[in-house]
Amino acid sequence: MQNKRSYSSKTIESRFEVLRVATAIGISLLVALLLITFASKQPLNALKWFLAGPILTMRNFGNVLELFIPLTFGGLSIAVMFQCNQFNMAAEGSFFLGGLGAGIIAVGIKMPAGIHAAAAIAVGALFGVVLCVIPALMKVKWKANEVVSSLMLNYVALFFGNYVLQYMLFDPDAGYNASHIFPRSVRLPVIIPRTGVHAGIFLAIIMVVVTYLFLYRTKWGYAIRITGQNQNFAKYSGIGVGSTIILSQVAGGALAGIGGATQVLGMYTRFSWTTLPGYGWDGILISILANNNPKFIPLAAFFLAYLRVGADIMSRRSDVAPEVVSIIQAIIVVLIAGKMFLDTYKHKMIVKNSQEQVKEGSLT
Amino acid sequence: MNSVVATIFSANFLFSVIRLTTPILLAALAALITDRAGVMNIGLEGIMLCSALTGVVGSAATHNAFLGLMFAILTGVVLGLIMAYSALNLKADIILVGIAVNLMASGGTIFVLYSICGDKGNSTSLKSLTMPSVSLPLIKDIPVLGSILSGHNLLTYLAFLCVFLIWLLLYKTPLGLRIRVVGENPNAAESVGINVRKVQYIVLVISGILAAVGGAYMSMGYMDKFSRDMVAGRGFIALAAEALGTGTPAGIMGSSLIFGAADALATNLQVLDIPVQFVQMIPYALTIVGLIIYSVSRIRKEKKIGISK
User: Fold this and answer.
1) Any B CB within 8 A of A34 CB
2) CATH architecture designation of domain B11-308
3) Chain B residue with Cα closest to A154
4) How far is A312 from A53, CA to CA, in rounded Å?
5) Do B90 and A281 touch (CB under 8 A)?
6) pLDDT band (50, 70, 90) for residue B309
7) Does the CB of B289 have a partner CB in chain A at under 8 Å?
8) DSSP assignment of A183-201
9) Which has the higher per-residue pLDDT, B287 or B100?
10) Is the pLDDT assigned to residue A235 strictly greater than 80?
11) How many Å lie between the alpha carbon of A208 and the closest alpha carbon of chain B?
12) Taking the domains of chain B in order of start, what are their residue ranges?
């Protein structure tokens, strides 16, 4: 008879995973709090705004939800590529180009409302795919390291975007380096009044579900996961490893591109990006935090959005720079990616549990 | 077009090639030493940025440029050790560790800069010092060549000296042999009693030092202050230079000079009538082309070896 108190080691492992994530978050927050205490003349004031700021007013909470949208897309994009064990960093550039593509369609073509936005997002996705697939093709065809090639491509994408903005989209009447104004037909409507939360949030949630189903309920998703876990095994089971690697990065590029397009159409009235937005890098933290599983991406994206907005409010109300969040991010990435972090503790738990089981077994 | 040719062959241009090669060369050597031990260090960008800042802060605090350099190097050592601990003890993927270092550096340097100077853009308010420039005796009197080779920052000469030192380390010392064995086949290395983890710890620290000197050069030689994101992807370009340099110090010096030239070209061509964005793109686009050429030639070589067997 199974005793209630003894668990299989698998349950322990999954429980342990939660504990690990919580400890990593706890340690990183603690470091951040220490840093803020050192950096600020009024640390308590700074900490109050950092931790509670986002929920004090509806407008601030609206900011969290606004930021949640691009972060979710960034996380999804990285998750699909990491599941295939591809460290393609071009998600960052794809996000930027997605925004650019949407901007071009927004100011370049006249279309009825709704269809116009859909077309702009579709073109954004296409732009994202084009960039992300280059490192994939180079890897599959010539075994070129995807990390280096994708890092370089981000810069190429950025300067290309700057060129297009300056020579093709630029509106001299804007007063700053920006495109002509977007027509109403292409903008994403605001859904919560007096905040900037726009309809893109629905698209983000839909894409979470779609990406989850794609990865866990289709044969392509299965191929991606198997290739990521063990490329040789995938090869011997008859999976086309090369095409699977490319597929994962096409999907990742599309998600980043849609994210960029949604961000530009939802948050701005003109295209004005002259630097990389950084959501691709954020996506890495989010994806790792979510164990590369789309199911948990919204939670992780919300967490980071909350921290960012909190830090932003803190910087306006106190003397601490909001960039302190990037230190939190780095610590979390290292601790969660560190397979051995808290590993001895896990072993102890499993050993103790088995000993108890043996003892009970010998008694009965 | 004539003006382009004239620009490229002027002594001024060649001087700036060497100037711009310096940080890339140091970082590429840093990439080389870890790569030869089977570790890919993509955190170089972040190490350079952090050391660029600590060098400036250190020199302002101690009123001594060399002590500032020591601060920078210490930063490189600490970051190298953190990377090694995360990757080798905690078993985090080294690429993710590198990304984490870069993330931490891009925001962390701004956080520290703002805490110290109250400014997020640059460190103008700090009275930081630069490493001295050196005019080489005898060589400086040679016409043309003298004006290209002499008068560089001390760290520039140190960078080119490091090419020789790293060569010496890799091919003429027992440690170098161990590094290469670990990189070729860690299991074989373990079986003959080499402590793989220790070797990889050592290379990550050496790599941290080299990248730190490269970072210090950015803020204490190339420029005389720290400004945000001043490394501007040079740590990443160095990874490409390493890949192109066929894994030898001399090869890496060659490929770093190519990237230095591309960088100098980008600065010099901005006066011409080409959209500036395309000029800025040159070093990065060249890297991608170079990476393809390198990868294709490596596959060909592997095929050849396969046939001869």
Assistant:
1) no
2) Orthogonal Bundle (1.10)
3) B284
4) 9
5) no
6) very low
7) no
8) PGGGSPPBSSTTS--BTHH
9) B100
10) yes
11) 23
12) 11-308
